Amino acid sequence: MLIDTYGRVATDLRVSLTDRCNLRCTYCMPEEGLQWLGKPDLLTDDEIVRLIDIAVTRLGITEVRFTGGEPLLRPGIVGIVDRVARLAPRPQMSLTTNGIGLKRTAASLKAAGLDRVNVSLDTLRPDVFKALTRRDRLADVLAGLAAARAADLTPVKVNTVLMPGLNGDEAPDLLAWAIDGGYELRFIEQMPLDAQHGWKRDGMITAGDILASLRTRFTLTPEGAASRGSAPAERWIVDGGPHRVGVIASVTRPFCAACDRTRLTADGQVRTCLFAREETDLRAALRGDASDEAIARTWKLAMWGKKAGSGLDDPSFLQPDRPMSAIGG
Predict the structure, then answer these.
(1) How far apart are CA 102 and CA 21, in angstroms?
(2) Which of 71, 102, 110, 256 is 20 to 30 Å from 156 by CA-CA measure?
(3) Structural domains in the chain, sorted by start
(4) What's the first-to-final CA gap in the chain, in angstroms?
(5) How confident is the model over 16-46, as pLDDT tens digits?
(6) pTM here?
(7) What residues form DSSP beta bridges with 329?
(8) Minimal CA–CA distance to 181: which of 144, 211, 213, 216?
(9) Do residues 275 and 308 lie in contact, with contact meaning Cβ atoms separated by under 8 Å?
(10) From CA 273, how far away is CA 4, in angstroms rounded?
């Protein structure tokens, strides 16, 4: 098992397939983009599948989430999903995407074995979408969401980050839209993972702010800690049910004590936390002809040293050197 000194066991693996993205969200990267990883630095499809195989068969991983950057920009993604679906035991597989490529890939991903998707969508207003992402692609995201629902990649979850002065007033409208469309909406507090390092705690919309806004139109009943488990989202039943809404309060209500995640970057680095400043290189082990047993041992050692928490509440907190697009969601 991937166990740490605090007794937490990682069963959820987040795998970044690429650091590239076809949006330029203001809270993630500058308008001109970033210096992307070179092809030789990226794990190959075979290397990704081998590491997932080791994680599933030797380290107790039961769920795999493919992330980016934008994972649908990875040419071999359908083949990777198909090969991971053939592992025994078969892990649950999900995908976090901006949704732009889903219209053309949802059916093939489902056929390959993908179970569900999370789609990032911060606004329903075309002008605000263009201002936030610096791209005019809202219609493509909405079409991708519909395609995911039609392909039965369910539950289709929608992840939303609210920012003051842009979309901070949209929480009730987004929830009403999600209920009508059959999507499960989750609001995420803006985290200090932007490439520009411009995040400020006093400039963020908190979980408390989001809930107060939602309660101007809806009645919210806490679902309860027992049903949450290690999931990052606190969930509320909306107007008595059956619909629910989640809030991921990474900054103001950290959930590190229940964390069950381990992360693999697109260039083969193990990260124990989104906010970790240290990484462990598995790519070098792969390309140095290390055995599966040796790689598993290196992975276990990395996770053993996982810190108690993200450190966001520590006055000395420093952002990771790598932005979210390079770490993986």
Answers:
(1) 14
(2) 256
(3) 2-327 (3.20.20.70)
(4) 22
(5) 999 999 988 887 777 777 778 899 999 999 9
(6) 0.91
(7) none
(8) 144
(9) no
(10) 12
C-alpha of 108 from chain center: 21
Which tokens in the block code for residue 300? 């276990």
- The residue length of the chain stands at 329
Give tens-digit pLDDT for 70-97.
Answer: 999 999 999 999 999 999 999 999 999 9
Q: Which H or E element spans position 140?
A: helix 138-150
89: left (phi over 0), alpha (psi -120 to 50) or beta: beta
Beta strands in the chain (DSSP E): 2-3, 9-10, 12-16, 63-67, 92-97, 116-120, 157-160, 184-188, 220-222, 234-238, 244-248, 261-264, 269-271, 280-281
Residue 8 phi, psi (nearest 5)? -80, 140
- How far apart CA 26 and CA 129 sit, in angstroms, is 11
Q: Output the 3-class SS for 50-118.
A: HHHHHHHHHCCCCEEEEECCCHHHCCCHHHHHHHHHCCCCCCEEEEEECCCCHHHHHHHHHHHCCCEEE
* Alpha-carbon span 181 to 201, nearest angstrom: 33
C-alpha to C-alpha distance for 241 and 164, rounded to whole angstroms: 29
User: 10 Å Cβ neighbour count for 239?
Assistant: 12
Decide: helix, strand or coil at residue 264: strand
Determine if the peptide bond prior to 69 is cis (ω within 30°): yes
Torsion (CA) 110, 111, 115, 121 in degrees, nearest 10:
-10
- Joined tokens for residue 48: 């990704």
